């Protein structure tokens, strides 16, 4: 029901709006002057604005849904905090669903209501909305932020992305492969299975790591641990696989392809404002990321 709203063609229609958002935030960074937190000033606002636009969510509520999303994505949060954050987010989304039931808008929820409204309960629509809201900005925001230290550690790759517009697509695929922000998945084998010569018995617990998979020499034979923005893209697992593959992956790719080169061109002397060892990384989250990213130029 939602796939049609996230095709390459549909997502590409958002390019002018995303380019404007990126330009406006770069202007605001320049006006503020160094030092700024790139997470707060750039990496988080861009995908937040985009997903608000898609879901017809008032942008004024962004601080609320960002706060609730961080709790929901925090694997160490206690049950009471999770319940409270989910309830607050669901209540806000219920208002949006009610509005779209009465007069379907042009956003994703409005489209689903027009095409499938009779098949869905309000709770299901609320579930659609909150899932997209949480997943649609936290993941991309963390990829944008984490890409910057990775590029700063590899100045030749940074220069390529900044000065070669044609490599934006392959560059984003390589950053997705190299960083692989989804946390490892914990699963239990439901049957005996042989995997590459290893026996996994039914009932045994398994840790599945997208990052490890993305750096498998069988997938990337040459220098799998290196960042190479000219590398031919491989079938990396950062967006999952099969029926559970990320619905919004084309949107995430577009945001990164626009935002990262624009940032590097606007601030060619971009640098961390603190030693990299001082950066604080998210622990226990379902998505890996940096809590803050002070930069200067």
List the helices and strands and how they pair.
Blueprint: H1 8-12, H2 15-32, E1 36-37, H3 38-43, H4 45-55, H5 62-73, H6 79-102, H7 108-116, H8 122-153, H9 155-163, H10 168-179, E2 185-188, E3 193-195, E4 198-200, E5 205-208, H11 210-214, H12 249-266, E6 271-272, E7 294-296
Antiparallel strand pairs: 1-7, 2-5, 3-4, 6-7
Helix pairs in contact: 2-4, 2-12, 4-8, 5-6, 5-8, 6-8, 8-12, 9-12, 10-12
Protein architecture, described:
The chain has a three-stranded antiparallel sheet with strand order 1-7-6. Strands 2-5 form a two-stranded antiparallel sheet. It has a single domain, classed as Cytochrome P450 (Cytochrome p450). The longest helix has 32 residues. The protein is built from twelve helices and seven strands. With 297 residues, it is mostly helical. Belongs to the cytochrome P450 family.
Keywords:
297 residues, mainly alpha, Cytochrome p450, 3-stranded antiparallel β-sheet, 12 helices, 7% strand
Residue share in helices? 40-55%
Distance between the termini: 45 Å
Going by CATH, what is the homologous superfamily? Cytochrome P450
CATH architecture classification? Orthogonal Bundle
Family: Belongs to the cytochrome P450 family.
Keywords: Heme, Iron, Metal-binding, Monooxygenase, Oxidoreductase
Pfam families: p450
Protein name: Cytochrome P450
Summarize the structure.
With 297 residues, the protein is mainly α. The protein has helices at residues 8-12, 15-32, 38-43, 45-55, 62-73, 79-102, 108-116, 122-153, 155-163, 168-179, 210-214, 249-266, and strands at 36-37, 185-188, 193-195, 198-200, 205-208, 271-272, 294-296.
């Amino acid at each position: 029901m939602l796939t049609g709203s996230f095709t390459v063609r549909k997502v590409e229609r958002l390019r002018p709006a995303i380019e404007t958002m990126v330009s406006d935030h770069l202007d605001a960074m320049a006006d503020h002057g160094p030092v700024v937190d790139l997470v707060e000033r750039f990496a988080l606002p861009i995908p937040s604005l985009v997903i608000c636009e898609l879901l017809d969510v008032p942008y004024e509520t962004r601080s609320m849904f960002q706060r609730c999303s961080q709790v929901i994505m925090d694997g160490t949060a206690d049950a009471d905090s999770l319940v409270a954050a989910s309830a607050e987010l669901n209540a806000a989304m219920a208002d949006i669903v009610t509005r779209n039931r009465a007069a379907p808008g042009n956003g994703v929820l409005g489209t689903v209501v027009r095409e499938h409204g009779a098949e869905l309960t309000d709770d299901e629509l609320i579930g659609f909305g909150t899932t997209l809201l949480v997943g649609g900005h936290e993941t991309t925001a963390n990829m944008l932020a984490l890409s910057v230290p990775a590029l700063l550690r590899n100045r030749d790759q940074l220069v390529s992305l900044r000065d070669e517009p044609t490599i934006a697509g392959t560059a984003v695929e390589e950053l997705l492969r190299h960083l692989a922000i989804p946390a490892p998945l914990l699963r239990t084998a439901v049957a005996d299975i042989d995997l590459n010569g290893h026996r996994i018995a039914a009932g045994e617990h398994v840790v599945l790591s997208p990052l490890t998979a993305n750096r498998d020499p069988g997938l990337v034979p040459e220098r799998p641990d290196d960042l190479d923005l000219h590398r031919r893209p491989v079938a990396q697992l950062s967006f999952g696989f099969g029926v559970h593959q990320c619905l919004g992956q084309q949107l995430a790719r577009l945001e990164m392809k626009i935002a990262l080169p624009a940032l590097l061109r606007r601030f060619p002397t971009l640098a961390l404002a603190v030693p990299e060892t001082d950066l604080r990384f998210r622990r226990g989250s379902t998505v890996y990321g940096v809590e803050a990213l002070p930069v200067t130029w």
